[in-house]
Structures are given as C-alpha cells and as structure tokens.
Amino acid sequence: MSSSLTPELASPQPNNSLSDIFSDSPPISPSSSTPYSAEPSDIPRLRSTHVTNGYREGIASSKDQALQPGFDEAYPLGAILGLRVGYIQGLLDGLSSAYGRGKQEPIVIKKDGEKEVEMKSSERERVLDLLVQARRELKIENLFGKEYWGSDGMCAYEVKGKEEDVTFWEVADQHPVVQKWLTRVTDEARKAGIQNPEEGFVGTAR
C-alpha cells in the first residue's frame, strides 16, 4: 500500500510589528540584520543648536541682571578714586611749577682735596620725580589689582568708617596706594608752606 508523504508545512509566524516595542535592543531592518542607528543623524545637530541658543540667551539675560546693577554700584567709587588720583597728581604738578620759579642752590663738594662747585638738584626736579612715580603707581590696573579687590567686587583691605556704614570716600581714601600718596603729597605741600592743601577740593564737601 503506497502512501504519499505530505510534508508538514511550518505554521507561519505572526508578523507582529509591535513585538519588540519594549525591547532594549534597536529594531532590526527587514532587509538587513544590522541595527538602526540609535539616533537619527539630525538629532545631534538639533541638540547642538539648542545648546548654543540657550547659551546665548543665558549670556544676554545675565548681562541685564548683573552687569547694569554692578556698574551702577561701582561707578561712584570709580569716580571718587579718579578724583583722588587727579588731586594727588595735580598737587605734585602744581608744586613742581611753583618750585620752577626759584633758583638752584650751589653746594661745595671736596674731591681729592680740590673744591668743586656743583648745582644742587632743585626741589622742582625732586617733585617731578615724585610725580612720575605717582603716575606709575596710581595706574588703574594697579588700583584695581587682585590684591585690593575680591572676586565679589568688595575691597580686600580694611576700611574704618566714621559711621556704621562706610562711604565710598572712605573706601577710596583708605586704598593702600591712594593712602600712601595722600600722606606724601600732604607732607610735600606743608613743606612748601601750604597748611591745608585740600581746601577747595571737591572732596572736602563729603
């Protein structure tokens, strides 16, 4: 008895496109066994664009919130420091001009038993040397150096005020470099017979 063998047909697998929706692996392309890229190619570009735009907006916003208030607070102090520097340099310049009207004094120096007459350095030259030194030390980059100011904009040196709250004038006058030169020019003025060199100066009304 002959019988024909009918091959068993494999039952078709259901084509469920959602079967791997919760899988941790990326989907497999029907035409290839290679996984798709984890991200479409335009995602990094969009991310970079958003980061750049966000950075620019943050900078612009911070300028409005921080720069203007900082400028408003620091401007009066900067103006007062400028007045003090101008006063110091102006007084020295005035003294040098006043000394320029005088005559140099001869002095006698003995050298190898012989007398030589030399002209003594005039007071004008000495004060001019002080003026050059003051201009060098009172440059803005020196006045606002890191040794005098903290990262928060507050002065790093001690300031003693007459009242509980110190004033900008007190902060400026007690700046170590300014204080040094205020003392120096006051002494120079008194040597020249000026007892109250600050009389009439705008800062005396503070």
Task: List the SSEs and their pairings.
Blueprint: H1 42-99, E1 106-111, E2 114-119, H2 123-137, H3 140-143, H4 168-173, H5 176-191
Antiparallel strand pairs: 1-2
Helix pairs in contact: 1-2, 1-5
Account of the protein in words:
This protein is mainly alpha-helical and 206 residues long. The protein is built from 5 helices and 2 strands. The protein has helices at 42-99, 123-137, 140-143, 168-173, 176-191; strands at residues 106-111, 114-119. The chain has a two-stranded antiparallel sheet with strand order 1-2. β1 and β2 (114-119) form a beta hairpin. α1 (42-99) runs antiparallel to α2 (123-137) and α1 packs parallel to α5 (176-191). It is elongated and about 80 Å long. Mean pLDDT is 75; it is low at 106-110.
Q: Any descriptors?
A:
about 210 residues, mainly alpha, 2 strands
Distance between the termini: 130 Å
* Mean pLDDT over all positions: 75
Q: What is the percentage of strand-forming residues?
A: 5-15%
Write down the secondary-structure element order: HEEHHHH
Shape: elongated
Q: What percent of the residues sit in helical stretches (DSSP H or I)? A: 40-55%
Count helical runs: 5
Count the E strands: 2
Multimeric organization:
single chain
Return the structural class.
Answer: mainly alpha
Poorly predicted parts:
106-110
- Radius of gyration, taken over Cα atoms and rounded to an integer in Å: 41 Å
Order the strands across the largest sheet as they lie in space. 1-2
Largest beta-sheet characterization: 2 strands, antiparallel
